Amino acid sequence: MGKPSFREDILAAGLQVMLRSGYEGASVRDICAAAGAPHGSFTNHFRSKEAFAEKVLDRYFAHTKGMVREALGDKSLTPRQRLKRYLDIISGVLADDKWNRGCLIGDFSLETTSQSERLRERLEAIFQEWRAPFASCIAEAQAGGEIDSTFDPLDLAEFLLASWEGAILRMKVERGPAALDRFKKIVFQTIFKEQK
């Protein structure tokens, strides 16, 4: 019988450790300890911490895309309501964690892009993929006259995600929902204001 593979355990533990401690704060030793895996298992499965972080980021983004599909794919809601639904879903996740953690994509964007070209490029690709369903939903809302058509849907999707990430950063500092609530209130009374 061969040695057991700890790859999945290490990835799952690494995601939790990096959400809590960030890229720099998450040591390979801490990740292996959280996974209950020997230190050598890490190097057997991952060429470097950077390569590992990319896999963790992909795992996190796959989960995020599931929440995007849940909210933006709900055709029982109007496109504008779907956009708000996504922000409410994420707010609920952050509330469950008592406002102590943010978005790994945003955290890695702050922490790794000056150190790792590989992670910077992966994050850029994630943001491009992430904005596409939002741009489609916004275009649908504009075509239906639900929101103003002054701005390009792709630009609005970029604005929405970038501003939301900023609100999440403030939420982490404040350890409460005020920044998220303020963002949602302002954006849905201005940029995404319902057209009469």
Notes on the protein architecture:
The chain has 196 residues and is mostly helical. The chain has two domains: 1-46, Arc Repressor Mutant, subunit A, CATH 1.10.10; 56-189, Orthogonal Bundle (Tetracycline Repressor, domain 2). The protein contains nine helices and no strands. Helix 4 crosses helix 5 (79-96), helix 6 packs across helix 7 (117-143) and helix 7 crosses helix 8 (153-174). The termini are far apart. The model has no long low-confidence stretch (mean pLDDT 94). Pfam families: TetR_C_13 (PF16925), TetR_N (PF00440). This is TetR family transcriptional regulator.
Task: List the SSEs and their pairings.
Blueprint: H1 7-25, H2 28-35, H3 39-45, H4 49-72, H5 79-96, H6 104-112, H7 117-143, H8 153-174, H9 178-189
Instruction: Quickly name the level 1 CATH class of the largest domain.
Output: Mainly Alpha
CATH superfamily of the largest domain: Tetracycline Repressor, domain 2
Helix content: over 70%
Strand residues, percent? under 5%
Structural class: mainly alpha
CATH architecture of the largest domain: Orthogonal Bundle
* Average pLDDT score: 94
Number of helices: 9
